[in-house]
Amino acid sequence: MLYIKCPWCGERDETEYHYGGEAHIARPENPDELTDAEWAEYVFMRTNTKGVHRERWVHSDGCRRWFNVARNTVTNEIVAVYKAGEKLDLPDATAPVKAAAKASAKSPAPSEAKKPARKTAADKKEGA
Amino acid sequence: MTEKFRTSQGTRVDRSKVINFTFNGKAYRGAEGDTLASALVANGVHLVGRSFKTHRPRGILTCGSEEPNAIIQLETGPRSEPNLRATQIELYEGLIAKSVNCWPSVNFDVLAVNGLASRLFVAGFYYKTFMDPKSMWMTVYEPMIRRMAGLGVLPREKDPDTYDHMNEFCEVMVIGAGPAGLAAALAAGKSGARVVLCDEQVEFGGSLLNSKEIIDGRPALEWVASAVAELEAMDNVRLLKRANAFGYYDHNYITVHERRTDHFGPGAKPELARHRVWHFRAKQVVLATGSHERPLVFADNDRPGIMLAASGQAYANRYGALPGKRGVVFTNNDSAYKVAIDLVDAGMAIPLVVDLREVADGELPNTARQKGIEVVTGAGIVATEGRKRLKAIEIAQISSDGEKITGAKRRIECDTILMSGGWNPAVHLFSQSIGKLRYDEEKACFLPNISSQKERTVGACKGTFDLQSALEEGMTAGALAAQDSGFGKGKAPAAPKAVVVAEKPLKAIWVVPTDHPVGQGPRKHFVDYQHDVTAADIMLAAREGMHSVEHMKRFTTTGMATDQGKLSNVNGLAILSAQLGKAIPQVGTTTFRPPYTPVTFGALAGRGINGDLADPVRRTPMYSWHLEHGATFEPVGQWQRAWYYPKAGEDMHAAVTRESKALRDGVGILDASTLGKIDIQGKDAAQFLNMIYTNAWLKLPVGSCRYGFMLKEDGMVFDDGVTSRLGENHFHMTTTTGGAAGVLDWLEEYLQTEWPDLEVYCTSVTEEWSTLSIGGPKARALMEELAPEMDFSNEAFPFMTWREGEVAGVPARVFRISFTGDLSYEINVRNWHGLHMWEKCMELGAKYDITPYGTETMHVLRAEKGFVIIGQDTDGTQTPQDLGMDWIIAKSKSDFIGRRSFVREDTKRPDRKQLVGLMTENPKEVLTEGAQLTYERVNPTPAPMVGHVTSAYWSPNLDHSIAMAMVKDGHNRMGQWIYAHDRGKVTKVKIVSPVFYDQKGERRDG
């Protein structure tokens, strides 16, 4: 059972949380402008990272706030926890290499700096 | 019966304290400090069980938790417990035990005839023998296998004991209290860190309890005693005996099963929780879990009297119980010579050591020779004799590659074999922690290699088999673990000095040859004792294509018994590797999973064992009324909802028929308090709802209600409900009973992660409001009496509006919404007025013959109108269009959650499954929910399924059975006949509109 540090409440057992899938996939502002493939990319496609994965968690049985976790999917080590809208720079060595390789021209690479289109609204708001 | 094999030398038994016990119906005597197994050994009892498939007689093989043969049903009645290991059961006065897996008795086992038919029981026999016909599985094969297996019997009675769960944190968790673990705990404890030391045994000391080692010039157990005393004096150290760490999960989360009262006898200490499951979260972990001696795989290596060498040594040294009169040691390494020496010293005849190695010239073999023990090298045991007890063996020289016998056979009479095939570090917890193993050729075992968590392994668990190094490793690891958790400077205290005798390397011969090729004669080479898997089975599995160790495991069931293959896994995969011509590391190991040893369900359940603590039960304020008036209840999630209210002599069908008609003819009342309710406020609330729901919300007037669908982004419906505008920036949302929590989560997720700019606040108010639905043609008359101040006319209070006012003397919100199709009012009052309101409605409604109805009637009435229930008629794969509700989508809106998905190819497909009504040809025949549908009566195989029945009821108001269904291209097939299939029964049904009753909607306004 993971031991996750909620940015507001501190360290708690995984049973207090719910997993929310990959982080930093913003809902497109104008869905009608997307092709079917692009829309499907948003709705269905995730990176399935082997290594450090940015993902969302919500402290369901606590403060009920959503936040981000960078977790190594091989070891389950939690590299960092950060609030929605906050920025997290990780050394290149831990960047999700496979995800970058998978990215096509139409779906920008999921590394932070390169993918404004996939940032969440919360990111935009707080200027991260 | 006297303890014929008891010596005066056992260090941990008190012979002056006699304990009487019964095993398989026979009375015996043991001594305080005995386990059931050691007491049996002291009494010369080795035949303790029968094997799983062929029911061969089996004896005590080990002295620890890895025991595969001595599997016991302990006690009788409600406290009876199956599948315990005799090697771990502490003896208490009056103990009653019997073997599992033998019938009628261990000495005369009817099913031993299976042994004669053992060709039937080859690898994969489940898959081969019990294949067809499939219908035989549940009725014949499975019960037969279960009876044959006979692995213990569960008590039928309620468990009378209590169980606790404990949650605890520590800096350093040390698992295993042998020499390395004790050293680690001492070093960590001195730093001031919170330390937990747990061990599955009765007392601390680990392997030192069994052997005769010397530490600091004294018997090792004296050092153990002083170490334990030192630890007990430390306030920061928690010591857990009889506590088996059975699971190592993520982030150093460790579960420990502590047996607190079993050794006093059943029910002896009712004031104590019998077992505890501890949940530890440790900053650092030190694994000192020791190692298991490995059996040798030789011909007929399973006869009673054949024992692991160090276990025999333990019985003699620790319990003063000699394993036999005359034993032969069979080994591939030096450690078993220590056993031979100790047993000779204890008074047992050990005429011979048979060593697979060509040379045995280490210090220990030489000492053994000096004791007069004959050492035969380059040889193996190639045959054994004796059914219920070993009688004799045959040894022979074998080729250096271990493939064949090269010399003449020599027969030796003996009643015991003490075998050692080397040592397997107990890497189970390390592997559970996702640590990576490596194979060590010299020690012929898997060792911890790469840690995945904040953990260290020490001692035999790390392959460090010499005592001095283990002590030093323990001290170092304990100090470093404390330092890494913020305590001390990482300097290890000096380790005590142990006497170490150097040992020469072992020689791995995985299958010792016999006088016929393996699997081609009568002699069997057992690998997995508990599941009766032989070397021949594994070789057959490899020949039949099971090249992966995971496939081999499942095909042969190696390692799948209650012992989880602690003894068999390495031997099994080594044999597989040899058969495949691959190196052992290339084949790899199977996955180690919790629990390390079985844990009782009671312990896992904890205080929840009595049921009422397992899950919360939710009841509405009117629950007491429902109960008093004979309602039957239906669980809906955690809620207890009134299902129907049978009158004297009524069954469910009669009650529901009466309730359904009563509403349509007069007035009915439903407790709808369980509906999810969410209070939504904020200046952007309307805009937010506009994105959440498919229809338009911005212009909904205050005082009005609207029914809406919520979709996921894939365009599929996931919840529905009516939401009302209470004020400009204030809404009251209702959800399905089961969907309430999920909908609130959904709203909050979007507000926090997608649209944090919106100012909207959502609060669950499900339990603040009680909801009573009053419906039927006489509902208006009743409402007028309940609330004389309010105007209930259609003009003043139209459908889909709500009004605030005083009802039955208390403030209420009344919503004119309907889930039955009839005129209907939903009265919402504060929770504490719920029961009052209900009673008032019943009182004033009496003259209208008001009828309370439950969820079953509600389902029937809504189905008569074709109203969907999300989660019953839908399963997350339906769009609003599939449900025939295109009208609920606002065409004017440019965006809402899920909208974009409607124009995807798949959601546009005309032949999607669509919601329709079904009428059976025979009006009396009610379909089965879940029945599959086909267009044709007779179909090719596989039949093209075109849908399924989602709801089916008897409709009293139509006097006809009705059903709702999802049917491929259903909307274009109105009036067509199709076929419903239910376990062989075929029913002709007509596709119709799902609105069966009052198709023009004339009853809505009363």
UniProtKB/TrEMBL annotation, chain A:
| Region listing for Disordered, in residue ranges | 95-128
Q: Where is the composition biased (Low complexity)?
A: 95-111
Locate the compositionally biased regions of type Basic and acidic residues.
112-128
InterPro entries assigned to the protein according to its UniProt record, in alphabetical order: SoxD, SoxD_sf
Top-level taxon in the UniProt lineage: Bacteria
Gene3D superfamilies tied to this protein: Folate-binding superfamily
- The protein's name is Sarcosine oxidase subunit delta
**Organism listed in the record:** Kiloniella laminariae
TrEMBL record, chain B:
Specify the domain of life of the species encoding this protein. Answer: Bacteria
Residues annotated as domain GCVT N-terminal: 622-893
Q: Which organism is it from?
A: Kiloniella laminariae
Q: Which UniProt keywords apply?
A: Oxidoreductase
List, for all copies, the residue spans of the domain called Aminomethyltransferase C-terminal. Answer: 913-998
- The name of this protein is Sarcosine oxidase subunit alpha
Any Pfam family the entry gives? GCV_T
- Which PANTHER family does this chain map to? AMINOMETHYLTRANSFERASE, AMINOMETHYLTRANSFERASE, MITOCHONDRIAL
Task: Give the record's family classification.
Answer: Belongs to the GcvT family.
